[in-house]
Amino acid sequence: DNGLSEADPEVCGIIEKEKERQFKSLELIASENFTYRAVMEAVGSCLTNKYSEGLPGKRYYGGNEHIDELETLCQKRALDAFHLDGKKWGVNVQPLSGSPANFEVYTAVLKPHDRLMGLDLSHGGHLSHGFMTPKRRVSGTSIYFESMSYRLNESTGLVDYDKLEEMADRFKPKLIIAGASAYPRDFDYPRMRKIADAVGAFLMMDMAHISGLVAASVLANPFDYCDIVTTTTHKSLRGPRGGMIFFKKDTVLGVDLESAINNAVFPGLQGGPHNHTIGGLAVCLKYAQSPEFKAYQNKVVSNCRALASRLTELGYKLVSGGSDNHLVLVDLRPLGIDGARVEKILDMASITLNKNSVPGDKSAVVPGGIRIGSPAMTTRGFTEKEFIAVADYIHEGVQITIDAKRAVSGSKLQDFMRFVASPEFSLKDRVSD
Ligand code: PLP
Asked: Which residue in 59, 77, 174, 235 is the catalytic one?
């Protein structure tokens, strides 16, 4: 059997180009990271060959003795990484990614067209929390369930819990979802628990973006207040691309969460688990219990704060005025420009971030802001000093966008990109193969 370069030079060439792009660019997308070399090895292993529908000890195929050992180890590490007592909490490590994990929870605890509430997409929520426009139900969550979004207070940039309480009282959801894709602050879980209890709703946290920060106890612990916690595994947690669902081992509102969630994953919505991903996830969850991981997550936050305060010094308006986590959301509207144009200009200089809606945007098509995250470049060794420089480069990109006549060439930004591409750039060894 040939290796990739011989078997398929075309795909091999594309991978090489992507590796080069990842190496040479400043990766500031808040949902991305560089996983560990050991995780990549597990993901690229023979584990991909095996079918293992079912759970450890209860499979529909033979030959699963090693897969059972692996999945049991992964479950144990997942509970340990989030400091959970295995008598009170269980976990399913088979969800293929974050959106499937969320949908699996909905089908486990709701009936079709039951009601749920999540944070509005244009205010930082995720599509899978129930996005719909006045004309169209967009995500499966709002097609198969009835969703009503709660929002931020536009003047503070914080979740408007008073309004959520009022809306929940009228809408009577069966599920309230905490968690976001573009929210620079932490969630008030005690308050959300109270709101959910008052209307008899389940409380779920989708900690996809912040699961690394939660594991390192850098942010508040959602497990103290929620019935169910979902996550992706490839963002701040630094694992392979996948998902997990944590559930209380209890009957909540008449639903035995363990069996409902396990059955929703398989046979409800999935078939064979991706065992190579579960292998990579187990490795990542081992790292997640190390002192180095905790130090890394602390740096993710301090780097993000340094970025936020430099941007503020430069006169930028940040949604909520700053950040407590791994991302900042910059409102560009006071400068008369939009996020799409700035994203494009910065992309040309190999600075990768994304346009993002900001509260008060008239249209989601031309979002008024950009989202900037610190996890990936912190993995590559950036400190506060480099993040301050990053803020300056972004500022330069914004100025270029404002003054479209100004040429990119000859700028400090371009000099920096030449330096990153040069052999002297000391972070080379930090990029995974
Ligand atoms: N939940 C949140 C909060 C997210 O930000 C994302 C993705 O960015 C997801 C779920 C979906 O994850 P996936 O893209 O793995 O389906």
From this structure: 235
Ligand 1 centroid to residue 142 C-alpha, Å:
16
The pTM for the full model equals: 0.93
Q: How would you class 339 by CB atoms within 10 Å of its CB: exposed for 0-12, middle for 13-18, buried for 19 or more?
A: buried
Is 42 close to ligand 1, i.e. is its CB under 6 Å away?
Answer: no
Q: How far apart are CA 165 and CA 278, in angstroms?
A: 38
For residue 182, the CA-to-ligand 1 centroid distance in Å is: 11
Q: Could you give the dihedral angle defined by the CA atoms of residues 242, 159, 394 and 425, in that order, rounded to the nearest 10 degrees?
A: -40
What ipTM was reported for this prediction? Answer: 0.98
Assess contact for 151 and 359: CB atoms under 8 A: yes
Q: Could you tell me if 331 and 319 are in contact, meaning their C-beta atoms sit under 8 angstroms apart?
A: yes
Determine the atom of ligand 1 nearest the C-alpha atom of 179: 3
Q: What distance in Å separates the CA atoms of residue 90 and residue 69, rounded to the nearest whole number?
A: 17
Does 97 contact ligand 1 (Cβ within 6 A)? yes
pLDDT digits (tens, 9 = 90+) for 41-81: 999 999 999 999 999 999 999 999 999 999 999 999 999 99
Evaluate the CA torsion angle 259, 264, 46, 23 in order and state its sign.
negative
Q: Is 381 left (phi over 0), alpha (psi -120 to 50) or beta?
A: left
Axis-axis angle for helices 291-313, 384-402 (nearest 10): 40
Ligand 1 mutation target, pool 105, 120, 128, 270, most atoms within 8 A of CB: 128
* Cα within 13 Å of Cα(234), Cβ side: 19
Range list of H helices, 273-374: 275-287, 291-313, 339-348
237 in contact with ligand 1, CB cutoff 6 A:
no
